[in-house]
Amino acid sequence: MTKYDVVILTDKKQAYPSTIDNYVKNVITEDALVANALGKLGLNVIRLAWSDPNFDWSTTKAVMFRTTWDYFDDFKKFSEWLNKVSKLTTLINSETLIRWNLDKHYLLDLQNKGIHIAETKFVETGDTRTLEALHAETEWKDTVLKPCISGAARHTYKLNADNIAQHEVLFKELIAQEAMMLQPFQHNIVSKGEVSMMVCNGQFTHAILKKAKAGDFRVQDDFGGSVHDYTPTEEEISFAVQCVNACDEMPLYARVDIFNDNQGRIALAELEIIEPELWFRNFPEAAEILAKATKEKLSLL
After folding, report:
1. What pTM was computed for the model?
2. Contact 92, 56 (CB under 8 A)
């Protein structure tokens, strides 16, 4: 039986693509950069979908979460798999960090440690208040609504007085099943964009700027957003490293999404440590830094 040092995790769609478009090419390129960097250090690597039913997860020293971008489509199945696999091998990042980071309530933990986050009202499952009532309580006029467990802008809506009523039925259905977040609309994200800061093993490596397409507010490339090279300020680098250091344990890799809030302060949008796109294709050296940190971690097992 073949033994592996690292399994690079993707999802079924990316592991067995029916078509190779630019999106899939980027995923394959990103995973290949990590795999090649690990291979150069003498590690035996394979790339698989996390949901692969045939692989024996006890045959690898570690699994590295990279492009598992379908986990929230069947979260129950993913959670059960996570519980099982964590007993058989080492997870990078760890199960503790993954479970903490799965739910956006983690933002409150970081806020309690002094990290400035986007102003947020958490609306818990089963809450009976309407969107209109929540807007009246907060006195926010323009807002964004999204789930606490999500990705790729799933069920993310821009709300205002003109369209709140149209979303009431949907909101009632959503809040009956899952917790949601309501945030004031951040105008600087549209006008200036959102910065993604990559941190590997506690070290800032590189950054990119994401901008929404004209007429949209979502910066993800799934919705036509664009990616640009970006040179961060020392203040932004320091903020990103502080966010990572505020975790209960140091993640081997993280993406810190930041923006200037409506008051002009640097704020954390999200800290991604499960399966963030890390834009290694923009800065391949970061894949080598991650590979070295991974090998060091494996040597301690």
Report:
1. 0.91
2. no
